[in-house]
């Protein structure tokens, strides 16, 4: 397949504004690309409805039922572009300038998604020592709901390893990732005229008391160091309360985001949040904290078979051995596989994710296609270096 065809395919995907929607359009474009390659008959395709206009795509290649099954995953949604006037080039135009392709999702993670598809098309119909299952997911940037649905339907239960093509770059491979816990704190007060505050109860003052106690309880856990993932983090990220400047507020809330580790896990943070609530009640605060969603930290052996194969492929292609680390964020792996399962997060990209002027080096995207093609060609048949 020509570089120009592969680049045009990535541009097409970026031009679809799949901001929590239109993943079905992305899935359709992926299948159109495969059909145009003339290799669609080598693929077993399954379309999984998620919501209106939102569809997941599962593609299987390889027919030897006894061969190892490698799962590869990429999400089809992107975050909002923000103020589009701040962008040098329109965020959904997929403009190429000086070897860089600009656009929302260029790094996170339509370049990884497209590279998986092109590589899979490259090897379809060849004598593979494995089977490969591609999973294009929805809603990763919100709640990982699409990946969770695929896991619930059984698409990950028979995998031997899982690759998630998030943008790590080629110098690092994740073999672990932090967990996440989102929560909402709410406080009740009593409204009154601001000239007579004694007749009311200021919910914002009480909210600040609860917030301070929550931060103090969380600090006990964030001070702990995990040998793989480092420190957990705690951050209040949303706050609100009151209805008018001259009314004592009768309610208030704040939301927070915690990134947990095995050393400071979600259960411990949940208990810390409730301890803060109980301490606040002693100060007259009528408050509560509710956990909205939680995913546990995840880790695999740093020398699992998939990572060994990736390292061999990197070296065979002239790259240095990658640093195998615990990642600071979460991926769809967190809801697809159990702790300890062989997995790796590895894909083209950089640190412009979720930023204005997000971009990818075109050369990195093309290199990822080559690396993934080698992975699909050799996984399950011994390390590439041993075969060369």
UniProtKB/TrEMBL annotation:
Q: Where is the Peptidase M20 dimerisation domain?
A: 176-283
* Sorted UniProt keywords: Amino-acid biosynthesis, Cobalt, Diaminopimelate biosynthesis, Hydrolase, Lysine biosynthesis, Metal-binding, Zinc
Does the record's keyword annotation contain Zinc? yes
Q: Does the keyword Zinc apply?
A: yes
Q: Which Pfam families match?
A: M20_dimer, Peptidase_M20
Which SUPFAM superfamilies does the record associate with it?
A: Bacterial exopeptidase dimerisation domain, Zn-dependent exopeptidases
Pathway(s) where this gene product acts: Amino-acid biosynthesis; L-lysine biosynthesis via DAP pathway; LL-2,6-diaminopimelate from (S)-tetrahydrodipicolinate (succinylase route): step 3/3
The EC number(s) this enzyme carries: 3.5.1.18
* Reactions mediated catalytically: N-succinyl-(2S,6S)-2,6-diaminopimelate + H2O = (2S,6S)-2,6-diaminopimelate + succinate
The record's annotation in PANTHER family points to:
ACETYLORNITHINE DEACETYLASE (PTHR43808), PEPTIDASE M20 DIMERISATION DOMAIN-CONTAINING PROTEIN (PTHR43808:SF8)
User: What protein family is recorded?
Assistant: Belongs to the peptidase M20A family.
Name assigned to this protein: Probable succinyl-diaminopimelate desuccinylase
- Which organism is this protein's natural source? Schleiferilactobacillus harbinensis
């Amino acid at each position: 397949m020509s570089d120009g065809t592969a680049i045009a395919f990535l541009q097409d995907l970026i031009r679809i504004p799949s901001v929590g929607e239109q993943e079905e359009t992305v899935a359709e474009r992926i299948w159109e690309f495969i059909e145009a390659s003339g290799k669609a008959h080598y693929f077993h395709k399954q379309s999984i409805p998620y919501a209106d206009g939102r569809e997941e795509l599962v593609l299987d290649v390889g027919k030897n039922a006894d061969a190892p099954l490698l799962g590869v995953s990429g999400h089809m949604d992107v975050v909002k572009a923000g103020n589009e006037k701040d962008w040098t080039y329109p965020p959904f135009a997929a403009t190429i300038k000086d070897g860089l392709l600009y656009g929302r999702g260029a790094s996170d993670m339509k370049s990884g998604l497209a590279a998986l598809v092109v590589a899979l098309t490259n090897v379809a119909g060849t004598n593979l020592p494995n089977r490969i299952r591609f999973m294009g997911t929805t809603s990763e940037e919100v709640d990982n709901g699409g990946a969770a649905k695929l896991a619930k339907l059984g698409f990950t239960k028979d995998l031997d390893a899982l690759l998630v093509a998030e943008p790590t770059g080629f110098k690092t491979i994740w073999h672990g990732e932090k967990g996440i816990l989102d929560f909402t704190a709410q406080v009740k007060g009593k409204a009154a005229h601001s000239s007579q505050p004694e007749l009311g109860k200021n919910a914002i003052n009480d909210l600040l008391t609860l917030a301070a106690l929550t931060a103090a309880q969380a600090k006990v856990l964030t001070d702990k160091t995990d040998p793989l993932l480092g420190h957990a983090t705690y951050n209040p990220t949303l706050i609100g309360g009151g209805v008018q400047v001259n009314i004592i507020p009768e309610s208030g809330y704040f939301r927070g985001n915690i990134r947990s580790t095995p050393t400071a896990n979600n259960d411990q943070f949940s208990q810390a949040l409730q301890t803060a609530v109980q301490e606040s009640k002693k100060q007259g605060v009528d408050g509560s904290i509710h956990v909205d969603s939680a995913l546990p930290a995840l880790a695999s052996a740093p020398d699992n078979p998939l990572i060994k194969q990736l390292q061999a492929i990197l070296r065979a292609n002239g790259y240095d051995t990658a640093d195998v680390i615990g990642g600071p964020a979460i991926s769809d792996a967190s809801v697809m596989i159990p702790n300890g399962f062989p997995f790796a997060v590895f894909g083209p990209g950089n640190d412009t994710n979720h930023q204005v002027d997000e971009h990818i080096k075109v050369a990195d995207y093309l290199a990822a296609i080559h690396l993934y093609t080698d992975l699909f060609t050799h996984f399950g048949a011994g390390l590439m270096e041993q075969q060369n």
